[in-house]
Design goal:
This protein is α+β, with helices and mostly antiparallel strands. It has helices at residues 3-11, 16-24, 87-101, 118-126, 143-157, 168-183, 195-199, 210-215, 295-303, 315-326, 334-347, 352-366, 372-389; strands at 42-55, 59-70, 76-82, 106-109, 130-131, 219-224, 231-234, 237-240, 249-254, 261-264, 270-272, 274-275.
Length: 398
C-alpha cells in the first residue's frame, strides 16, 4: 500500500480528527453562559422534528413542534404543531406568545429557513425586538431550548406511541395540555423551582394589541385587479377592491397566515379589503319583465308568458312524491307513466312546497290503498280550485 493511499484511508476514519487534536494538544476553550436577568428580556424559538405521528384518519404523518421559551424562567410561552417547518408556523407561534404575554426585548433562534424569511425578520424589526447573533451549527448557543427538546422527546413524543390521535387539531390540544400541566410545572434542578413559579404569571411591559401585532408581519406586493369583478388574487386568498380601483395595478399588503389584506393607495391610505366570495346559483334573482299601465300590457303578458320551473323540482320529483302517496314505486306500467306525464303537462310546472302540501291533503282525504287515478283527480281538483281563487288578470279595473 502506498503512503498516499494509507494517508487517505486514515483521514477517512471517524477517529482521525480526534487523534490529531490530542496529538497537537488542542483543548476546547471554556464557554461562557448567559441568562436573562428578568422575565421576557429574552426569548428562544426553535423547532423540534420531524417526528412521526400516527393519525386515525391520515395515517403516519411528520410533525414539527415550534416552541417559544422564556430565557429567564424556562417557561414555555407558546407551542404550535405543523406538518412542515414554515414561516407561517413561526409567525403563528410568535403571535400566540406575543398576544398572551407581550413582547420580548431580545429574540434568539437559529438560521433555519422558517426563521430567516423576510416576513418574519421584518416583523420582529418593526416590533423593536433585537435578534441575538447565533453561529451556524452550534446548538450549544441555545442550550436552554435544546434541554427543553430533550424533555419534549422523553415526556411527550415517546408517549404518542400509546396514544390515539385523531388529527392535527387533537394533537395540538394534547400538546397544549402537556405544556401547561407537565413541563411548566415540573421541578427544574438548576432553578430549584418550577418554570411556572419562576415566571409567576408576570407579563412584559411591552404589550401591543392583536391588530398591531398582526400588522407588523404584513408583506407588500403588487397585483392587478379584475376590471369587472374587482377581484385580486394574493398569496393568502382572494379579495375584492372598491369600484374606483378595479382594473388597475396597486400595492397590497397581506398577512402570510391570516386572511387579511390592505390596499395601499397612492395617497398613503390603507383600505381594508373584504374577501371575494363566489355566490351560489340560488342567489341569482329572476329578471322580471318591464310592466306599464294599460290593457295592451295585459295582452303582452299573456303573449309572452312562458312556463318557469322551480329549481330542482320537475317530473322526476313528481313521480317520487306520487310514489310515496300510493306507497309503491312509480311507474309500474306505461299507462301510469302516460297518466303522470299528462298530469304534469297540463298543470306543471309545480311548486315543491305547494305540491307536497296538496299530496298530504289528498292522503288525509282519500287514505291509503286507492288507485293512482283517484289521487290524480283529487290533486287536479285542488289545483283548479286554487287557480279559480286567484285574482283574474283580465279584470278591466286593474
Amino acid at each position: 500500500m502506498s503512503r498516499s493511499t494509507l494517508n487517505r484511508q486514515l483521514q477517512a476514519h471517524p477517529a482521525y480528527r480526534g487523534i490529531e487534536r490530542l496529538r497537537r494538544g488542542d483543548k476546547t476553550p471554556h464557554r461562557n453562559r448567559y441568562e436573562a436577568c428578568y422575565p421576557h428580556e429574552g426569548w428562544q424559538l426553535d423547532a423540534k422534528g420531524p417526528f412521526t405521528v400516527r393519525f386515525t384518519a391520515l395515517g403516519r404523518q411528520p410533525v414539527h413542534a415550534f416552541t417559544v421559551l422564556d430565557d429567564h424562567s424556562r417557561f414555555a410561552l407558546a407551542g404550535y404543531l405543523a406538518h412542515a417547518p414554515s414561516t407561517a408556523a413561526a409567525i403563528t407561534v410568535f403571535e400566540t406568545a406575543g398576544a398572551r404575554w407581550g413582547l420580548a426585548d431580545r429574540f434568539q433562534f437559529d438560521q433555519g429557513s422558517a426563521f430567516e424569511s423576510t416576513a418574519f425578520r421584518q416583523g420582529l424589526a418593526q416590533l423593536g425586538i433585537h435578534r441575538n447573533a447565533v453561529k451556524p451549527r452550534t446548538p450549544q448557543w441555545q442550550g436552554k431550548i435544546e434541554a427543553y427538546h430533550r424533555s419534549l422527546n422523553r415526556w411527550f413524543v415517546s408517549e404518542l406511541h400509546a396514544q390515539v390521535v385523531v388529527d392535527l387539531d387533537h394533537l395540538q390540544q394534547l400538546f397544549d395540555a402537556w405544556l401547561a400541566l407537565v413541563y411548566n410545572r415540573h421541578h427544574h434542578r438548576e432553578l430549584a423551582t418550577t418554570p411556572d413559579k419562576r415566571l409567576a404569571g408576570r407579563l412584559s411591559d411591552r404589550r401591543v394589541s392583536r391588530s398591531v401585532l398582526r400588522r407588523a408581519f404584513f408583506v407588500e406586493t403588487i397585483a392587478k385587479t379584475h376590471p369587472k369583478t374587482g377581484e385580486v388574487r394574493l398569496p393568502n386568498g382572494r379579495f375584492r377592491v372598491p369600484d374606483p380601483y378595479a382594473g388597475q395595478r396597486h400595492r397590497f399588503a397581506y398577512h402570510p397566515v391570516h386572511p387579511h389584506a390592505l390596499l395601499l393607495t397612492r395617497e398613503g391610505r390603507e383600505l381594508l379589503l373584504e374577501p371575494f366570495t363566489v355566490k351560489p346559483l340560488s342567489a341569482v334573482k329572476p329578471q322580471a319583465p318591464k310592466h306599464g299601465p294599460g290593457q295592451l300590457q295585459k295582452l303582452l303578458d299573456r303573449f309572452a308568458e312562458r312556463p318557469l320551473a322551480e329549481p330542482g323540482f320537475g317530473l322526476p320529483e313528481v313521480f317520487a312524491a306520487l310514489g310515496k302517496l300510493v306507497e309503491r314505486s312509480l311507474p309500474q306500467s306505461e299507462r301510469e307513466a302516460h297518466a303522470v306525464a299528462a298530469f304534469y303537462r297540463n298543470h306543471g310546472p309545480l311548486s315543491r312546497e305547494a305540491f307536497t302540501a296538496a299530496c298530504a291533503r289528498t292522503h288525509a282525504a282519500l287514505g291509503p290503498g286507492r288507485a293512482l287515478s283517484a289521487y290524480l283527480q283529487d290533486l287536479t281538483r285542488q289545483i283548479q280550485a286554487d287557480a279559480e281563487s286567484a285574482p283574474s288578470t283580465n279584470d278591466p279595473t286593474d
